[in-house]
Structures are given as structure tokens and as C-alpha cells.
Write a structure and sequence with these properties.
It is a single chain. It is built from 22 helices and 25 strands. With 707 residues, the chain is α/β, with parallel strands linked by helices. The strands form 5 sheets. It has an 8-stranded parallel beta barrel, surrounded by 7 helices. Strands 1, 2, 3, 4, 5 and 11 form a 6-stranded mixed sheet that branches. The longest helix has 41 residues, at 14-54. Bound molecules: phosphoenolpyruvate and manganese (II) ion.
Amino acid sequence: MPYTGVGSVTPMTDQDADILARLRLELDEVDNGIVRLIARRLDLVGLIGREKAGGAAGIRDADRERQVLERVESAAREHGFSVPLARKIFTEIISHSLARQAAFLSAGPQGGAREVGVAFQGVAHAYSHLAAQKYLGGLGLAGRFRGFRTFAEAVEALTSGAADLAVLPIENTTAGSINQVYDLLRTEEVHIVGEETWRVDHCLAAPHDVPLTSIRRVLSHPQGIEQCSQFLRSMPHAEARSYFDTAEALKAVADAGDPSQAAIGSLEAAEAYGLVVLRRAISNQEENYTRFVVLAREPQRLDERIPSKTSLILTTRHERGALLRCLEALAAQGLSLTKLESRPLPGRPWEYMFFIDIEGNVAEERMAAALEELRVRALYIKVLGSYPARATAPEAQPAAVKATPTERDRAEILAGSAPTGPAPATTSGAPVSAPPPRSSHYRLADRAARSEDTIVRVGDLLIGGTGFIVMAGPCAVESETQIAQTARHVRDRGAHVLRGGVFKPRTSPYAFQGLGLDGLDLLARAGQAVGMPIITEVMAVEQVRPVAQRADILQIGARNMQNFNLLREVGKLDRPVLLKRGLSSTIEEWLAAAEYVLAQGNGQVILCERGIRTFESATRNTLDLSAVAVLKERTHLPVIVDPSHGTGKRSYVAPMAWAARAAGAHGLLVEVHPDPGRALSDGDQSLSFAEFTVLMEGLATVTPPRR
Ligand code: PEP
Ligand code: MN
């Protein structure tokens, strides 16, 4: 059958067809040759990688990469083809080669497994699927891929163990960040072990080869529609319809077989679903890339020689210049930022958390030093992981660190773009003297690490510094009326936080153990009704996350002060923690326990003195008010006092509360019950409503020490 080219008028002769067929054959051979040569190149790269693995040098050699690119560019020039095209092709090949070499230095995200289960969002052939295939291909691994309806479901497949990795899009060079994925990184216990980029090349595809004018409906993901808006304006007769994702839109069009419908998506997916491509390259911007993150349950240990990125989440302190101080900690170690992104903090209007990508690996000394400093300067940090860098602008890879920052660098730091050199010693530029030595047991909690007081923020409430706050409520939540009545009373008398135990650490297993999560529900509703934040105790690791979803402050009780797993768990959350002093713990041990929380990245620790064991038996415990003075000297963390457990007897509570304020404490934790005689726990030390009123009135007359 004679070939008729699109739009040609004269039919082809048999001779023309012969020539065309021969040329195509030759073209196929050239293509095969190119693939063979690329394979040979990768083999050579592998051999070089093996050599490098034996030595100490890093696998990235910027000079060598530059030379390679210059050489191919000049060859392209000689052969008269596009220099930018040559650069593009070889940049991609080099990036692939680096991944190959990195594979020699690490066991990979799956510690050596050859086949991995990968979860992604979307149907088969979605961009996420394509990127996941590219990522595994780069490591020489095979994958079992499974698409999920939502990002959250893909992450759930990972955390539940149904998948080994999840590959999720995090940003697009034209549409920007994908917020849902950022939120999952914040809330879920997952680690970034890799990244991948995919060039988004949208096409318009339909079940039949029809003219564009006959298309009445175009399906795609909203981003696909947005990214091709200019092209779609040339099709005024077609309405755009949103779909879950581009591949699903293509599949729907293929399944329906309706000649008036088309979809926007990748060439790969259009071909996989047997569609005819009506137009290629229809995106508004030719250079349209999506960056994907590869997530695993465990962080990956990376060889220092692999060019890496580290991603982290950071919440700044409630003070001026807070972000700048954090960025200076990175710059001081010569670390470059490749990305800084801010997101609103849920439930805290106009406050932000920052997502930061830094060049470097947590295994490096300078990164470890920067992270330690960040743990002091930020209120909360979560290290999401270190992973081989695949998406980095070439100019963001400094050959050497600049010696001193310029005014422009500082302005850039302030504006949130990449800082490029070591930071000035202080924000004012004044030289600093050598910092005082820090305790080896509590380096981050030590006053020497931070001369200003830490202010812990709970909504609008500030704890620490010059303020004085009162947390009050029953020992245990017993019933809806009990907690609701108490909440109203303590709020009306000026308390700031509502307390109530729902998991109770009782000396006897036969005593009332608390209402558990049902009690938490009652506490949360009572707090909400009176507009007060709530605090409750967690006793076990598995209680931490469910309780953190409802409670504003998590309490670690005296009996658990050295429950290190529990401390580490609350240290992973962006949630204030009240750490009570252990029954027989020294102040040193107590600060070292606080350090467990800080070292995980959560700087929002409030210390609570609640009395210690001594030979004295006239009181339940001996309230150590001197601890307030000692702590204020040794640490920057806020210190509050619990005179209820500290004395064990109602009549001693108010005097000790007043004394605590006079001693300089930042607040109180007090037990109050509507009917202390009938309390299910700690009735003897619980104040009646009238007694709490007296305590609060007396408190107003106490003058705190001058600071
Ligand atoms: C409490 O505050 O309810 C409590 C059990 O306190 P502690 O851990 O200090 O005994
Ligand atoms: Mn109690």
C-alpha cells in the first residue's frame, strides 16, 4: 500500500517508498548503535566506580564533568548539531553514571535486595510510576510497582510494610510544591532515601486519529490542564475536565473510545493505553520537570563520598531573626542550601515551618556539627534523610566554599535563597568570644548553648522567659461533668492550661488506671469548650502519637523520667513536652533525660519539679524548690513546679505554690477536683474549687525575683 504522508497531495511512487524504507532501516541501526554505546559507557563507568570505591576520593569530580561536557559540546559544534542538545543528552547520561557509581559505595535503599516493592500514587504509567522505574533502573534494581489512589495510601503501604519504598512527587518546576506530600513528610515516620526527576512532556492523545476541531472534551489532572493552558486556548470548542491523574485520564479516554474525547498526559502512558498521539510537546513551558522523593521506613546510611543532599523540617523559635540564626548555623559550616520552602503550621496561624534541602550527608562531620547547632537554635527539627543528589542546579555545586559572606549573601539569606559561604559570627557582625564549655551529658539543654531562655509556645500561650503560667485540673479525668466543671472553674480563676490524667501510673495495679483514650476525648472537649489547651501524661511509646493528635502538651511522669524509648519518641514530634523530675533523680540526670528529647530535634521541653524521695515522712515527697534556682542557672529550658505531688497534702499546696513563684519558677502544675473527698486518685492533695481560688488570689500578691 502506498504511503501517504500527512498533508501530502501527490501519492508516493514505489521507488520513493523503497528509499524511505532503506533510510529507516539505517536509522534503526544507528539507534541500536547509540544504545550499545551508552551501555558500553555505563560499563566503563561501573569499572571506574569500582576503582573509586577502593579509594578515599569522592565520586563527583566537578572539573572532570565540566571537561566531558566541553568536549562533547565542541564535538557537536564540529558536526554541526545543536550544542544545547548535546549538553542536555550528556548531562542526563552523566547523572545516570553517577548513580551507577554511587551504587558501588552503598548497599542502596534496600540494603542489597534485588527486587523491591514500590508504592506510588496513580494508575499504571502515571508520571510517578515512570519516575519510580527510572530511579530503580539507575540502581540496577527490579521493582514490583503498585499504584494507590492517594499519596496518603501510598505512604500507608510503606509504613505498614506492604511496600519497601514509596515514590512521591514533591515539586514541579512550573507548578511549584506539592503540599500534601510535604504534610505527609511532617506527620509520618518515613525517611527520604532518594530523589528522581522526570521531564514532564505532555501530549494530547485520543482513541482515534481525528482533527483537533472535533475534540469536545479534554481530560487530565488539574496540573496537566494548567501546564497546557496556552495550547488548550487554541481549542475553544473543547471543555477541560479534571481527573485524578494524567495516566488515569488517558486510560479513561482509551476505555471509552469516544472520538470526541482526548486526554493530556505522557507519551509513555498514551502509547501504553493504545492511544493515538494528536499533538506532542504541548506544555506552556518546554522545560517542565517534576522532582520525586523516594521514601523508606528506615534512613539510609550513605558513604560520605557520594554527593548527597539532606532534607529537614525546621520550626523556628518565637523570636526575632529566628530563621536567619538557623541559616547561619548551616552557613557557618560551609553548607549550601538547595531549597528553602515554608509551609503554614497547622493550628498556628501565621507561623511557619521550613523545609530545607542542604548539600551534604549526615555522616559528614560538618553536617553533624550544623545539625547540633540547629537543635539549639530551632524549636524543632526533623531530619528527613540523606540521599544521593540527582536534582541539583549545576551552579549550586560549589567547587570551594567562599571565605567571607558579602552583604548580598546576607540579603539572600534573609530573602530565603541559597547562602553561599560561612556566616558572620553574630547577626550584628560583632566578633564573639569562645563559647563557654558545655556539659557533656546535656550539651543542648545547657545554658552555655543558649544564653536566652527557651520560650515554649502553646497556641498564644508562651511558657518560659518572664511569664508565669498555671496548669490546673484533676489528677485523673473521671467523668464528663467532673472535667467540664473543673475546666470552667480553673479557667475563670485564671489558669492557662487544663490538666487531666487519662493513662495513670498508679503504684498499685488494683488502683484506678484512668479512662484511656475515651478520657482524652472528654479532656479535649472540656478544653475546647473553655478555650484552654490541654496537657496529659503518656506512659508508653505507642500512646505518644495518638495522644499527640489531641493533646497540646505531652507529660512524661516522674516514673518515666528515664524511659529512654519514650523520651526519644516524644523527641520526634513537634509538640511541647513536660518532663517531670524522677522520684530519686539528681538534677544532672534530669537534664540528661531532657537532652534525649532535644537530641531528637524537639526543643520544646518544660521541666517540672514535683518533689523527691528523702527520709522525711511528714510530706509525700520533699519539694525541692532549690532546683528552680539551680535549673535557671544551668539550663535555658522553662521550669515549673508541682506543689500537689511535691507535698501530697492539700493544706501545703498553696504556700508552696507561692514560694515557687517567689523562687522564680515559670509556672505551676496543680491538682484541682470538684469534690476531692471522692476523687478516684490523689484526693488528699487535690484542691477544692474554693481552695484553688485562694491559691490564685494569693499568687497575684507574690513578687517574682528580678531578672
Ligand atoms: C501526675 O501529674 O498526675 C503524676 C502522676 O505525677 P508524677 O509523675 O509527678 O507522680
Ligand atoms: Mn496525681
